[in-house]
Every structure is written in C-alpha cells, then in structure tokens.
Specification:
Belongs to the DNA polymerase type-Y family. By secondary structure, this protein is α+β, with helices and mostly antiparallel strands. The protein folds into three domains: 2-116, Alpha-Beta Plaits (2-Layer Sandwich), CATH 3.30.70.270; 125-174, 5' to 3' exonuclease, C-terminal subdomain (DNA polymerase, domain 1); 192-363, Dna Ligase, domain 1, CATH 3.30.1490. It is built from 14 helices and nine strands. It has a five-stranded antiparallel beta sheet, with helices on one face. The chain has a two-stranded antiparallel ribbon with strand order 1-2. Strands 3-4 form a two-stranded parallel sheet.
C-alpha cells in the first residue's frame, strides 16, 4: 500500500513538473531553464525583462513583476502556490528562496550583490547555506569558522589548504560570488533583436491584434536581414489590458534558423493563437533570439529541392523590397493591410523614421 501510494504521488509530481515547465517557457526559452530537482528550477530571464516590461526601468522591479506574473499563472492554471527566489546569480536566487521567500507573505524574495552582508552573512545556521552540510560545518568549526560572515572573511588560501577546491568555493559563495550558468550546455549567446509597443487603445478584435503582430514580425525580419542574422528562437508577448479578465500571452519557441518574413509572421500568429484566451490587448512585443550569421545558413534536409528553391526566391524578393525601402522610404512599398483599422505600421514609421515609437532594441547578453 505504501509503495503504491508513493508511486501515485511521484507520478503526480512528474505530471505537475511537466505542466509547470510548460508555463515557464512562456517567460523564457527552454534553453534558459535548468531543472534543479523535481520541484525546483532555475531560470535565466536576462533577455525577458526588457522584452516583457519595457515600461519598467528598474531591473529588480522587472524581476519582481515577472515573478509575480509567473506565480499567478501557475496558481490560476494548476492551483499551485510557488515560492520564487530572485538574485544576481543562481546562488543568490537559491538562497533567497530557501531562506527568505518561504517565510514571506508574497512568497518572493530578492538578494542582490549589495545585499550580501545583510542577507547572506546573517543566515543563522551554516547548514541553511546552500552546499554546507553538517559534515562541512564541523570541518569549518575546527578552523574557528562558526558563521557565514566568518567564512566570507576567512583566509581563502587556508580554506583551500584544509578543504581543497571546495573550501575555496565556499569562500566565494559566502561572498555571493557564483559563476555557474543556467544554460551550461548552450554556447555562446549572441545579441537578440526585439521591439515592443504600447497600443494607442485597447485592441479587442483578434484580427486587429494579429495584424499588428504580423507587422512587428515583418519589422523583425527586416532587421535580421539588415544585420545579416538568422534567429532560431522567437518570443512573443501580448500584454492584457487593465480592463481584461484574461491573462497576458507570453510564449517562446525554438525554431529552424530563419530571417524569412512569412515564416516569422506565420509562427508569431501560431504562437499567439496557441496561448490567446480572449480579452483586450494593450501591449505587444516580439523578439528574435539565439542569433547566428546568415552566411552559414544550411539548406533544409526536410524540404525538397523545389521548396528550397522557392524559399530562395522569397528571400531574394524580400531583400529587393528591403533595398527599395532603404533607398526611398519604408512606406514606399506597403501591403494593403497597412490601411486597415488597427494597423500601426504607417504611424510608427512616420515618427522620426519609425525610431521614436518602436522601442526597437539590439540587446547584448549581460549574464
């Protein structure tokens, strides 16, 4: 009976783990998620902060907002209440969760580098610090080290001599230093292209929302071609209006590397329809991540020669249109849809060449 019950609970844990991870991918790429245990994960949200919340200028306020949205989505969809630790690196985030978030009413906590003396060094039990068990505590006690503060101010050479490399690691950790990378298996992150806009009014009609998404996907494709880049990850954000009873759309998906306008438009619309539940939208953002040079693009093994040739013709046409727009004016060639109700392309490109309102960014990784 005990084993059967344990098996059932384990399967329930696994099912929830899968569903929670699916929600996490709405906030960052799957490559930015590290599963630490069956009920804990690390997320690198560096590229998501400005994408989802460009109106918030403080990085830590952005982190708190994304943590709140994540908590609410998991609660609303799965009925689970989760704690979130935030920090300038994975270690600080883990310590924030274990020692503070679990005791806070909002179940969130943050530790910045400047918080190390007040929040790390004051942890009462050494065994409450990540990586220090009773055995390690005893060895440290023999060296006269009985607190995290004493560990942080100890002689690092002595720690290495007595405990080996792990002693040096404990010294750095006690000072809040952690160079581990959530996405260790992924090399290297390049820049990302993103743009977002706050709509002039609440958009209630799905066709109007999708029209703006298509326009922004086209803008992304143009910037990719101009920069000689391909994107292999697309992120989409559609922020719900304050009057909406529905949640915002946040989704990210790995794709075959591309800079093709139609491919990006089709994918963006597909991602939106996959997550959109209804309600008014007031903000839209789109981002192309995990960039690579377009000069190294390979032909698809899953497409016929005819399909590859068709793609080449499309790309040639798109580049020709880009050149005309560059030479004359972006609005010199436009689709009829740009005259449709809800379209933003003409307005945005009349504002100082489109720069004032677009909030377009080329973002470099800072993690």
């Amino acid at each position: 009976m005990f084993w059967k019950t344990l098996q059932q609970n384990l399967q329930l844990y696994v099912d929830y783990k899968i569903e929670v991870t699916d929600i996490l991918t709405n906030y960052t790429s799957i490559d930015e998620i590290h599963s630490y245990s069956i009920d804990e994960s690390f997320l690198d949200i560096t590229e998501s902060l400005n994408f989802f919340y460009p109106e918030i200028k403080n990085r830590y306020e952005q982190m708190n907002r994304i943590a709140l949205d994540l908590q609410r989505e998991i609660r609303d969809k799965l009925g689970l209440y989760v704690t979130v630790g935030m920090g300038d690196n994975p270690l600080l985030a883990k310590l924030a969760m274990d020692n503070y978030a679990k005791h806070n009413d909002n179940m969130r906590a943050l530790i910045r580098y400047e918080d190390v003396p007040n929040k790390l060094w004051t942890i009462p039990k050494m065994t409450d610090f990540w990586g220090i068990g009773k055995r390690t505590e005893k060895r440290l006690n023999k060296l006269g080290i009985t607190s995290i503060k004493e560990l942080a101010t100890a002689d690092p050479l002595l720690l290495k001599q007595k405990l080996g490399t792990i002693g040096l690691q404990h010294f750095f950790h006690a000072n809040g230093i952690d160079e581990s990378n959530v996405r260790e298996k992924y090399t290297p992150k390049s820049t990302s292209f993103s743009n977002s806009q706050i709509l002039p009014r609440d958009y209630h009609k799905q066709r109007e929302i999708e029209l703006v998404i298509k326009e922004m996907a086209e803008n992304l494709a143009i910037r990719l071609r101009k920069g000689g880049k391909l994107t292999s990850n697309l992120s989409l954000y559609a922020g719900a209006a304050s009057t909406s009873e529905y949640s915002s759309v946040k989704v990210s998906r790995n794709i075959e590397a591309t800079q093709n306008t139609k491919e990006l438009q089709d994918l963006a619309i597909s991602l939106f329809r996959e997550k959109y539940q209804g309600g008014a939208i007031r903000q839209i953002g789109i981002s192309g991540n995990q960039l690579s040079d377009s000069s190294v693009k390979q032909l698809s093994l899953f497409e016929s020669v005819e399909e590859n040739h068709s793609n080449e013709k499309q790309e040639s046409l798109q580049k020709a249109i880009d050149e005309i727009r560059e030479t004359f004016d972006f609005l010199s060639i436009q689709k009829a849809s740009s005259l449709s109700e809800g379209s933003r392309v003409i307005y945005r490109n009349k504002l100082i060449g489109g720069h004032a309102a677009s909030q377009d960014k080329e973002e470099k990784d800072v993690s």
